[in-house]
Specification:
By secondary structure, the protein is of the alpha/beta class. The chain folds into two domains: 76 residues, Alpha-Beta Plaits (2-Layer Sandwich); 155 residues, 3-Layer(aba) Sandwich (Rossmann fold). The chain contains eight helices and 14 strands. The strands form three sheets. The chain has a seven-stranded mixed β-sheet with strand order 10-9-8-11-12-14-13, with helices on both faces. The longest helix has 14 residues. The model has no long low-confidence stretch (mean pLDDT 88).
């Protein structure tokens, strides 16, 4: 698939705010850089819609834009030149298959992201991985909502989860999760392309939701219905300024905040039903 690469040059704080706003646009991958933010738009997506959103944002925030057309064959080369292994303490390492094995960690995941989001580099995914070290995953029934590359579902399996569903609205994420699960010798993930309405399971012991503010807010009542009493919900993709609205809506849905971490301007919150 061909892509348009949008290079947004700005300061780090503004880049994180832009990422939060653009997560609802039809981009399917983002990469934070030293200069700001790179956003990747499938060539068959609505470029007119994206340009209109960016024009509106340019009236509110200081950034410049450069657009580059990327033929499909360039993608793997781009990732191989930019994607470095991610280390989360001595708990977990995430690498691509062209990297050498990472020693001295409990768990090592091989993730080849292609055009799916979720490599561990972003603060949200990094925090979810770190939080999973402390989740009761042994024997658990788990849903990975917005699975991206499948990284969290795969780690959940490695940590002993017995039954896992992974769902993402993007077909590329669906395919990437299937491929990465096989690459990690994981065979207990049922992957679906779709929304929460396509999930077959109920009464999950835990739900992983590393998505964005608006999707989380819209989904909280349904997520509560799908979580067993006493079960947990781990959410990320939330800016620090959105903590209050997320927590209040989670409480209204029947969740109680248990633990929260922050990395940069991004939060990861664990709730219990």
């Amino acid at each position: 698939m061909d892509y348009w690469k949008y290079t947004l040059r700005t300061d780090p704080d503004t880049a994180q705010v832009l990422l939060a706003y653009l997560s609802d646009a039809p981009f399917d991958t983002f990469e934070e850089t030293e200069e700001g933010l790179d956003a990747y738009l499938p060539e068959n997506a609505s470029k007119t819609e994206v340009d209109r959103v960016l024009e509106d944002l340019s009236q509110q925030f200081p950034f410049s834009i450069e657009q580059t057309f990327l033929p499909a064959q360039n993608w793997n080369e781009i990732w191989e030149s930019n994607f470095q292994p991610v280390i989360v303490g001595n708990f977990c390492a995430v690498r691509a298959d062209f990297h050498p094995p990472q020693p001295d960690v409990q768990w090592e995941l091989v993730i080849n992201p292609k055009m799916a989001f979720g490599t561990g580099h972003h603060e949200t995914t990094w925090q979810c991985i770190a939080a999973m070290e402390h989740l009761p995953l042994a024997g658990a029934k788990v849903l990975d909502y917005g699975c991206g590359t499948g990284i969290l579902a795969i780690l959940a399996s490695k940590l002993g989860a017995s039954d896992i569903e992974a769902v993402d609205i993007e077909e590329e994420s669906y395919r990437n999760t299937v491929e990465n699960a096989l690459a990690n010798d994981v065979h207990n993930i049922t992957t679906r392309c779709g929304t929460l309405n396509d999930v077959q399971g109920t009464q999950f012991d835990g739900i992983l939701a590393n998505i964005n503010r608006n999707v989380i807010l819209d989904s909280l009542p349904r997520l509560a219905e799908m979580t067993r009493p006493g079960g947990w919900l781990l959410v990320s993709g939330i800016l620090a300024e959105d903590e209050t609205i997320i927590v209040e809506n989670a409480q209204q849905a029947g969740f109680e905040k248990v633990r929260q971490t922050q990395r940069g301007n991004w939060l990861c919150i664990r709730f219990q039903k």
